[in-house]
Structure formats: structure tokens, C-alpha cells
Design a protein that fits this description.
The structure is a homotetramer.
Chain A lengths: L3 E6 L4 H10 L5 E7 L8 H4 L16 H7 L2 E4 L5 H11 L3 E4 L9 H8 L11 E3 L2 H10 L2 E3 L3 H15 L8 E7 L14 H4 L4 E2 L8 H13 L5 E7 L6 E8 L6 H11 L6 E3 L17 E8 L4 E8 L3 H16 L15
Parallel strand pairs in A: 1-2, 1-3, 3-4, 4-6, 5-6, 7-9, 11-12
Antiparallel strand pairs in A: 7-10, 8-9, 10-13, 12-13
């Protein structure tokens, strides 16, 4: 079996660490180059002590020529804004890129501008494929530039897409109440992620339609529904390191039952080994997926109030970021989607 | 100042411990008797080591005569079902009772039957007052039997009542997504509250209209709204010991703004020192109220989707149980509501 | 009863918040002035949302004249180094000061220099009293400058002092293995206190005799023992917000038993209502003291190895800082030591 | 490459779940049979939801004939006492067994009797090999019965063995202060592992020489030292799910430095890919090894007090139980020790 040479750019954060953890165990990948900016010159194991004795490569500054010489495919784990320029260079040089930032996820440049500001490389948007294999597997296969989805959109879309695809719910009035672990905020320390301000408490943030991931979720749900969909999206910070739980609310169509919801999801994800549909009556739990590339989705119907409640649980750093990126890589390489990703959750 | 002699029945659980913590620091209360069943014969400080050196009273089995001799007012912190019989005896004997169970919270016996089964002392329902001072202060003042609300209803009703009272939202289609700390499940260990099954994960339970507190919330919101209100209620278990955060969703009426919501709450809670209305843009956090009898409420409007998002944060064992019971006692005794309850949250 | 007018200087950190929480509930204290540097101009409730509706005073910059006009006694909760200058001004102006920093805890200026560098106000060292009422109650009563002990020294000294006072252990070879909650590191966010780097893991820091608190512990134990005592001190960071647990190891003298250790502690702390001696066989738990000014101490003897194991548990922000400061204030004012500090732990 | 057929007996607990997680990803193993007692009849994925979509085998009751037909090698993850009988049957039937209980770890039956009571199958003790590959690799290779060490002994012995082997410390007066995550207490819920009794607190248990693992640690350290060694062993419960941190204290020999300690460990573990020796000045952290089969060891010297401080960090369920069992299996099968175990920690 041939081996793909990959580079990781932006390797010093949590998604970088998770990419390395997964890629170093991937049987068809060689990690050929690891780039970082501030931490350049250090060894990977100094920046990520979990990799001591596993990877002692030196972190080098990004240089296009060096990346081009070393790698065929590049994972880019930089912040949005910073990512577009480097991804642009890589794409211009003919390298296939998996970008974990938000820069190439939105198809409509005006939507990008509304949420993020001017786009540095709007010319590439038309070529980028949204890297959710469960929805865009065929396009990913041939893609030169894959925009790996954010953690909230992955969890939200996987839960709701089957309901919209089968018209089991009214697409108006959707509410997504999402609960995230703290790694979703990245590795840089802030007052709000200081341990004593986070442990033993829960709070929402950016309520009232302010979170940028809203735009991604709406884009993907609109594609599935075939018409414009808007959501009320409420992110919460939970005192745990990893995991996203989505509890989404929709008005039921007549005749919608838990079983029909489950069937819709089973059908939509029939070729998607990362997604499991929970039994009727079973509640999703982020513990069950922590450290794995798996997504659990489940459904409840409240017949007293005519509501369908859709749930999903993922690990935000794996299925919500680095694992999903590697899953896309597998699709691009024609491998089984689970290659290097078959491990069960580290439970408990 | 005269001192009320109180008894605590059912003192071995978490709400019992919290009652003792608060009552032992209350300047107008003497804890005259402490009853428990399984733990009878032990000292309070053996069952609650946090009270070592503070309360060494012996736990005694419940006997009506003994309670009647020792106390004027009784706090009953027993499980629902078990509570009704003992509360009935106490009420028959002419003692004023503050019951922390669900047994006397519902006005309609058929609603009780639907959610809990046959009522052992339905005759007392008409005499019981729902112990939320913010809504029923005058009735509590004269009450012989106060049914102290559950933790979820307290948080849910405080957040939503001002909106319904002023018709700022449509009362149809309300969604209450609630997140609770683990003490809400009581002191008895279970598989689901075993540390490794709870830490580092979040999950919902009883989705789809199965949680009994739904009935209480609907009763109180219906009273405020002046017509029947139904809610979709989704409880979640969060890896923290104390606290409830409610994020509630309602369809906005035309012209509803964050400021109008805040004004409605400020007006409704003008005489309620336990409730604070957060600033516009401020998100509630259970950390800010932990260990205190305070409730924080706040509002957001998502103009893109026409939603009002109401938030509240309380400590489930204080404002959601034992603190609220003492607040009711203060009202019954004609004291300042804050007596013995003025402490700030233990933060962080 | 007369009321003392106090000022709090350095009110924006965790010990400042805790001072305010306690002082605002103290019946013989008026919080007359609250000073902070960076946060000056904000209201206390903006900086400490737990005080919303309880204290809305404005934080003002420190000015000697203003403090002198407003207050008789000053709590100073500044970092070491920064504290000495301001404490010096206050002392020169004749104000009684309770300093929570390390600046005036060491009697020997050369020891200070070794661990902290040059002392800015060494002239005041002779006048300062080490603010552990259990050891220095009489001196505190008359003190003009009280140096409130650090959290580690409080826990370590309370556990070991009775053993050394009665010569129940060899004072050579003492080991103090201490475990602290994260608030011990202060309010400023750092990489090492970022939630994901702290939750679900435990680590030591400054092993091998590097932690500055070593000097305080040795000073106080030497005083008790009557000769120089050295300790091996190993601090650890535990994924919890509050609490210090000390497990200390000493070589047993012949004939030392658990009961003799417990008797020694009971005798030493007979007039100390904040300290409780645990039963034989009982293990200390930081949960039992969280949010309270209480210290639990306990003893085990391993007869197989000739070791005495001494334990203590405190809340680092209360008995390890702000509560102890108020306890000293009570001693200075001739009040019952427990005034404003009688509350039980917020458990669980 | 040939594939070993293995059975797992006692698959419903946490070590069972972890065995399955690891074995299902092991390239040279087929999980042929999964046995459980109470949960027999259920599917593995019902008992361990983390395995949904990964393993849907049915749990069957243990029957010797069935195991013998299906498997060549058996992992036994039963409680001590219960294990000996079944391991005995398997051994009598000629199957190779890896036992994760304490039943065959002690060489001296009188030591077993002292700590555990009468041994049900003392005849097998002479044939059992202590399953720590770092110390007994050659014996494990040919063993019919491997007694996989407990979590505390693994961490303690790996830290201290190099020091004793090189006589860098006095073997008298060793202190092992160990801190464990809650999964070490197993899957059955108890009062002491109920979330609210464990979160946000730390406590020791079985202080004073009461913990049974003491005997294992002393046995192995005595073997390394060449003479009887006794330790003071103090286990603590930390609010985290996984991980053991050991901080061990020993009196230094003259001339012992951090570098000599590190060299001793590097030499002893030169052929042991699971063990990494930390840099001088670096503190071990359980976060860095969580979910992996790795052990980190490190050393400090306190020259003021003549103490060597040895540290180690492992994941109690992996290197402290199931991972180590699979590592032994690899040795028995002549495979690279890391096979199926090469993954990095799931960090953070």
C-alpha cells in the first residue's frame, strides 16, 4: 500500500496535537513535516508532552518550498484569517489541502463577509468542498481544497439533516442548544477558560444569534432542505475538556414518530461508519464518544407539545475537527473511511 | 427578637444538610430537633462531616409527639410519596410545615395522579401554598403548609414568568433546556451518578416530556399567563455538583426587545431581593450563585429568528430547595426575606 | 456594639473577593473602602458578579489619605513585593494592617532575601506578627501589622505543630506532600491553569525544595519545636477550585499512638474553634471544609514502618487566606474568633 | 501474521471495557469470546456504549468448554477471590491466562493470607509470573499464567526500582504518596464515588499501612533491592476519572544527583518502549499519559534535606491494568511490545 506524505501546518494547538496523534497511527500516512510559528525550533514532544517517545520531530516555520518538497497533502490548523493566505499559497502550488479553519467553509462570500469580514482569497471559495463526508463524500473524493467543518456545525447538522431531508419537521423555528467542552475554545489561556472560572459552573455565550458557526449550520441545513433555513443557535460552555452535545428542537410534522426519525437517520448514514443511530429512548452522552471519531445521533418526540428533539454527541477535537479531517483524507485517498480512526472512545 | 423553634425531618440527605447549614446560622431560629430514619442514632456531624464542631445533635426517628413538643415549625425533606403521610400528621396536629417534596406542589389532584400516582393526602392540597415567594408572597405569609418548589421549576418560572405576565412572547411553543448539577439527583449513589460516568461528559435524560417537574412549571406559568401553557422541558446532567442553568426559548411578540424583557423582570422582582436581573448582553453563570440563595435572570433577543432567549441561574440546593424554604419561613415569620440568607455565592 | 471601619486594598483577585464575601456578612464591620488598581472605576459587582445586588461600591485607586480617612483597619491583598510598599505607608500612618502577602511573614530578613530577594521595608519585620491565631493569638491581639499566613503553611503547620510540641515524632526528615486547588494560583489565567490543562489530571510543581512557602513552614515549626526544623515540601495541583489537603510524614517516637497524636492536637487547639480533630481512622477531606474557615486535622500511625502520618484539610481561600485574616481581625478587636466566620462548609 | 484467539472473562467492568477497546484494535488478535456474569445475554455495545458500531458480540456466561473451544489465551478481569477459581480451571485446562486480579501476584502464600485471606489455589502461585514486562520480560515470554500488576504497584515500582537497583537511595524509610483517579475504584457505584462526594475534593484512604497493594510493591522492590524493603503507602482519591500520580520519597545516598537517577532509569528501561524518563526539572502529569500505555518517570533531589523525590504517571486502566495485560500478551506472542498499544495519550 502506498503511503501519503502529509504536512501539518499549525501544529502547536489542540487540533494540531490531535492531528498528530491520529496521523502517527495511520497506516497509510507518513508525517513528513510539522510546522509551527511561535514554537518553531522546539521538538513536537516538548510542545505536546503526550507525544514524548512517539514523535520527536522538530517544529519548523512554514515555508512553501519546504512543504512542497516534503508533502503531497497538507493539513492546515491555523486560526481563521491567518489560514486563508497560507492555504492559498498551498493551493496555488498544486498541493491538496485540508483546512481546519473557517476560511473556506462558506460558499457565499457575502455571508463570509457578514460574519468574518473581508475574505483574503475569495477566488478559492468556489473550489472548496465542505468536508463533511456524511453529506459531501463524492465531492471530497476529488477535492483539491477541503474545508473541514467546525465542531458545532458537525454535531448540529448530523442531528438535524435527516429530519429535514425527509420533511419530518418544520424547517422554521429550529432551535439548536449546544453544549461544548472547553478545548473548543483553543489552547490559549483566557480569563473565561481559567480553571476556577470554568469548573463547577455552566454558562452560555454569544446568545441571540452572535456565534459565527450559525452561518455554517444554516448553509448545510439549507442545502439538505432545499430551501433557506434559519436557526436559533445557543452555545454553552460545560466544565469538561472534550465533547459537544447538541439538543435541537423542531416542530413535528403530522405523523412523525421516533422510529421514522431513526429510520431517516439510518438511511442517510447507511454508508457512514462514523455515525451511529441510538436506540429509541436512549440519550446521547459525550462520554461515549470521547477520543473517537464517532457521532451518536438520537431522537425523541414530545407528543404533548408536538416537538421533535434531535440529539447528537461528538468529540469536538476528533469528529469535530482533526478526526474528521483525516476521515476526509481517507476519502480523498480512496481508503476505507475508518482507516486510522477505528478506535473506540476512551471510556470512561 | 423572638426565636422560632424548628424541626428538620429527613435531615440525612443533601437538602437536609443544606437546611441545617442555613438554619444554624439564622439569627431567629433555634434548630430544636433533627429527625432521620436510617441514620437515627448517629450525630449530625457524623452524617454531615461539614457540620463537625458546629452541630453535634443526635438524629432521632420521627415521632409526632416529640416533634410537636419541640418545635413550632417543621421542615420536611423527605422523598415524594414518603412525605405526604408525615406532612399530613404534622398538619393535622396544627404545626406549620414547609415541605420540600413534590407532594403538595400541584393544585390539581388529577395532574398529580398523572405524574406521580394516587395522592395519599389529597385533602390537604387545597390548603397548600406553592412556596415561591416571588410569585406567592402574600399567600405564604399566612400559610399552614408550604410546598417548596423543585429546583427546575424555580429556575424555569423565574426566567419565563415576566415574559408571560407582560405578553412579551407567545405562550405557545415554549422550550426549556435546563442543565443541572449532580446533587439534583440526591445523595444515594447510582450508576448514572458514579463519578467516572458523570465527570467529563454531558447528557440529557427524560427527554420528550417525561420529567415530572414539567407539571409544576406548567402550573405556575399558566397562572401567570392567565391561560394554559405547555412547555417542552429537557433536563440535562452537567459534571458539576451544584447549580441549574435554564436556557428557555420563546417566539417573540412584535416589538419585544431585551430592554423590555429586563424591565418586565425588574418590575416583577422589584420586591424580591433574591433575584437579580442581569445587564443586557450578560450571560448567566451558575458559578456566580453557587452556595447562595440568589437567582440571576437575563434576556436575549435573536432578531434574525424572532426568538426571545430567557436565562436563569440558581443553586439547586439553595434557591432551588433549602434556601427557598428558609426564605418562605422568613415570610411566614414576618422577617426580612434575606434573614440568614444574605451571604454571597462562594465564588469561585 | 461598635463597628470597625475597614478598607480592602487589592480587591479584584480571589482573596479580595473572599474578603468581601466574609466582611459584608460580618456584624461588627463596615466595609468603608474598596481599592483596586487595574479595575479601578468599575463597581465591585462587575468584577465579582457573585456580589451583584450585595455590594455595588466603586473600586477606587489606592490613595493613602483616602484610606486613612475612611478606615481604621486595612486588609491588603496584593502580590508579594507590591504589598510591602503600601503596607509600609499604611503602617507609617498608624493604621492597623492585615497583610495577606508573603512580605511580612518571615522574621529573618536573610531568609526573606534568599527566597524572595531584597526586602523593601525590612524595618517593619520586627513589628509584624504571624497571623495564625492558633499559634500566636496573644501577639495578634495587640499587633499593628499582622502577616496572614499562606495557604500551604496554614495547613502544614496545623497538622504538624502538635506532634513537634509534644515530641511525638522526630523533627528530622519531615515530608509534607500537599495538594492544592487551582485558586491557589490566583485569578490571572496562565497556560498551566487553563481548564483543559488542569481538569482530569494531577501534577506536582516546584519539587525538590523550590517552593517559597517552605520557609514559612520551617519558621513556624522551628518555633514550636524549639530548634531548627527542615522539611521536604511537595506541592501538587489538583483539578478542583478550592482546598488544600496536606499529608505529612514523620518518623514516630517510641510509644506514639494515634490517640496520643489526637490528644496533643486537642490540647493545642482547645481554645481554637476553627480547628477540629478528626476521629481515629477518619480521613480528612477538603470537601468537608470548602467555603468555611475550618481546619480538620487527623493522624495515622503505620506501625509496620514506624511512621506517623498527619493530615489536614482547609479551604485555601478561607482558612488559608481571607477567613484567617478576618479571624485575626476578630482577635484584634477582642471579638469571638468565629464572628462572621461561623458558617459550615458548602457541602457538597 | 497469525492471529491469536483470545477470550475476555469479566468483560462488564472498566478493565473489561478497556481490554476490549485495545484488543479490538490489535492487529494480531481476534476477540473470540466475551464472558460476563450479571450482564450475560446483553450485547457488548449495550454494556459499553462506547463500543456501539464497533463490537456487537453477545456477552455469554463463563463455561470452561466454551472458552477452551474458542480461545487460546484468556484475559481474566474478575475481582480477587472470584478470579482464582476460574483462573485455576483455565490453567488446569492448559490455556494461557492473563489474570488482572490480585490473586496470583504474590509469591509468598503467607503474605497473601495476611492481606487477602486463605488462597483458593495456592498451588498455582509458583507458576505465576508477575506481569510487569519492564522487570520480568523473560519470564513472561514463557509464562502459562501471568498475574498482571495492580495500578498502584505499577506506578510505584517503575518510579523506585531504578533507584534501588543502583543503590542511589536508602531502602529504609521509603514513602509512596499516590494519587489515583476514581476508575481505580471500579465500576460499581458507592457513596464514596458518588459524583458530589468526589468532585471538587481530595482525600486519602486506607492510611497507615492498610492498603493491600502495599504487599505487591514491597515484593517487587525487595526483588530489585536484593533485600527486604518496606514502604509507607498512602493512596489518595483525586477528582478525575483516570490516572495515577506517584510522588515517592527516599533518603539520598551521598553523591546522588538528578542525572544519576535519570541515568539509572534510562538504563533500566532501555528496552522498554512504554516508559519515558522525563527531563531534569520536568514534573510528571497524568494528563500526558491518559488513554495510553505509557509511563512517565522523573526525579528531583532536595539537597537541603537530602531527599530524592521520584515521580511516575500512568493511566490506571491502561498501563495500570488492561494495556499492561496486552503488553504481556505481546511478549508472550513474541510481538513488538507496542503492538496495538502505540497510540499517544488522548490529550487534553
Amino acid at each position: 500500500m502506498s503511503v501519503a506524505r502529509v504536512a501539518v501546518v499549525g501544529a502547536s494547538g489542540y487540533t494540531g496535537a490531535e492531528l498528530l496523534r491520529i496521523l502517527l497511527g495511520h497506516p497509510s500516512v507518513e508525517v513528513a513535516l510539522v510546522c509551527a510559528h511561535k514554537e518553531a525550533g522546539k521538538r513536537v514532544s516538548q510542545v505536546h508532552p503526550s507525544l514524548r517517545g512517539i514523535c520527536d520531530a522538530e517544529l519548523v516555520p512554514f515555508e512553501l518550498a519546504r512543504v512542497r518538497d516534503a508533502a503531497d497533502i497538507v493539513f492546515c490548523a491555523l486560526p481563521h484569517g491567518a489560514s486563508a493566505g497560507i492555504v492559498g499559497q498551498l493551493a496555488d502550488a498544486g498541493l491538496r489541502v485540508l483546512d481546519l479553519s473557517a476560511d473556506f467553509r462558506l460558499r457565499d462570500v457575502s455571508v463570509y463577509r457578514h460574519w468574518y469580514g473581508e475574505h483574503p482569497r475569495a477566488d478559492l471559495l468556489a473550489h472548496a468542498v465542505y468536508g463533511c463526508p456524511e453529506l459531501h463524500r463524492d465531492a471530497i473524493r476529488e477535492a483539491a481544497l477541503v474545508a473541514v467543518p467546525g465542531c458545532y456545525p458537525t454535531a448540529s447538522v448530523l442531528a438535524l439533516a435527516p429530519l429535514l431531508a425527509r420533511d419530518l419537521v418544520d424547517s422554521r423555528g429550529l432551535v439548536v442548544d449546544a453544549k461544548s467542552g472547553v478545548t473548543g475554545a483553543g489552547r490559549a489561556p483566557t480569563q473565561g477558560t481559567h480553571f476556577p472560572e470554568t469548573a463547577e459552573g455552566i454558562r452560555a455565550y454569544k446568545l441571540g444569534g452572535q456565534h459565527r458557526h450559525t452561518s455554517e449550520i444554516e448553509q448545510e441545513l439549507s442545502l439538505v432542505a432545499g430551501h433557506d433555513v434559519r436557526i436559533t443557535f445557543s452555545p454553552h460552555l460545560v466544565p469538561m475538556s472534550r465533547g459537544i452535545l447538541v439538543t435541537a428542537y423542531a416542530s413535528s410534522r403530522d405523523g412523525t414518530t421516533v422510529d421514522r426519525c431513526r429510520e431517516a437517520a439510518s438511511a442517510m448514514y447507511a454508508s457512514s461508519p462514523s455515525v451511529a443511530v441510538l436506540e429509541a429512548g436512549e440519550h446521547a452522552d459525550t462520554l461515549w464518544v470521547r477520543g473517537s471519531n464517532r457521532a451518536h445521533v438520537g431522537y425523541f418526540v414530545d407528543s404533548r407539545t408536538g416537538r421533535v428533539i434531535a440529539q447528537s454527541a461528538i468529540d469536538n477535537l476528533v469528529k469535530g475537527a482533526s478526526g474528521q479531517a483525516v476521515q476526509c483524507l481517507n476519502v480523498m485517498l480512496g481508503l476505507d473511511e475508518r482507516t486510522g480512526l477505528s478506535g473506540a472512545a476512551v471510556y470512561p
